[in-house]
Amino acid sequence: MQQPLAYRMRPTKIEDIVGQQDLVGPGKIISRMVKAKMLSSMILYGPPGTGKTSIASAIAGSTKYAFRVLNAATDTKKDLQIVAEEAKMSGTVVLLLDEIHRLDKTKQDFLLPLLESGSIILIGATTENPYININPAIRSRAQIFEVHPLTPDDIKLAVKRALKDKANGLGNYPVQLSATALDFLARATNGDLRSSLNGLELAVKSTEPDKKSGDIHITQTIIEECLQKKALSADKNGDAHYDVISAFQKSIRGSDVDAALHYAGRLIESGDLISLIRRLLVIAYEDIGLANPSACERTVQAVNAAKQLGLPEARIPLANVIIELCLSPKSNSAMTAIDNALKDVRAGNYGEIPLHLKDAHYKGAKKLGRGVTYQYPHDFPNDWVKQQYLPDKIKDAEYYYPKDNGKFESAFKVQYFKLRQSSRH
Length: 425
Hints:
CATH topology of the largest domain: Rossmann fold
Pfam families: AAA, AAA_assoc_2, MgsA_C
InterPro entries: AAA+_ATPase, AAA_assoc_2, AAA_ATPase_RarA/MGS1/WRNIP1, ATPase_AAA_core, DNA_pol3_clamp-load_cplx_C, MgsA_C, P-loop_NTPase
Distance between the termini: 83 Å
Protein name: Replication-associated recombination protein A
CATH superfamily of the largest domain: P-loop containing nucleotide triphosphate hydrolases
Order of helices and strands: HHHEHEHEHEHHEHEHHEHHHHHHHH
Number of domains: 4
Number of helices: 19
Family: Belongs to the AAA ATPase family. RarA/MGS1/WRNIP1 subfamily.
Keywords: ATP-binding, Nucleotide-binding
């Protein structure tokens, strides 16, 4: 029986890994390990289908070490012993141990000396937080790396590779994948490449070729059926996807809790967690901002929790913060302030930095007048002293216009105008 497409398309060298470039990209930690052939045991944790097995397979392929896969929950100590014997006979073995958080003490005690000696390079894979769910004895002997859901662009790249690959992919099939089907396939699986590839394979092998051209036309409707996900946030030209995101932000900005939850529900049901959490971060700082800075912090916390949990549980912390952002006081003054400053900069409306603010940490700076008259605010009462910071040309420029929406920015407003009056008048 032929293995699933996702299995067949696993990379055999580091350069072929899709996504996780912060770990496997040129000059990054795992890439450096492989290049130097100085592998150490590691634990990869993150959501399903994000490349944990692919990274292990590519490490083994790039270093030419034997590669074995076991499951900590279902495979026995005897299975580990077989791998250990192979390592003694043929040298180092790279062992991918799936669900490593379920490793019992008997298997752990057997593995520890093998890890110490380097005869087995352990790559543990888990969806659980290793700092909480993995025994410290194993954890202390392995580096811990987090893998993240793949982006839609990552998944599109992998899908296109699979469609071209004649040896392991679907290159021998005359597939015509529509742009909307590709876009939906890349977004609806929430960064899970395994689901995307296996859904694609089902679509290709279950669709009858066109009687005239012989081509297999894969539409968005076919992909929806094979993934069992409906395009609630995307239509034939993709506009509705962005319409939902726009409506989501505008509902929070307008303080309508029910509408915001409705549009969030559409994004969640379509599996588009990535777009939802990115937009939430934008909303927190663009629309709530200085009116409630702590809400911005809690949004970051909720987003991080959602990434750790994945769907469907991710909906819970996100619902909490969506409701809070809706009911929070609003202010866009910080965004407006930086945009005002950028407008001046882009128009060339800026002058020479005052001499007393210029860098004075080099020989000869004093002769040039750099930093000579600078006054260190911490040497003065209340850690403040009157001095000019803006260039002469724009010394009276105003970019920030505080609002009174919420106790935080109201306090900022009082302080801002107090300092402005003291320093510029």
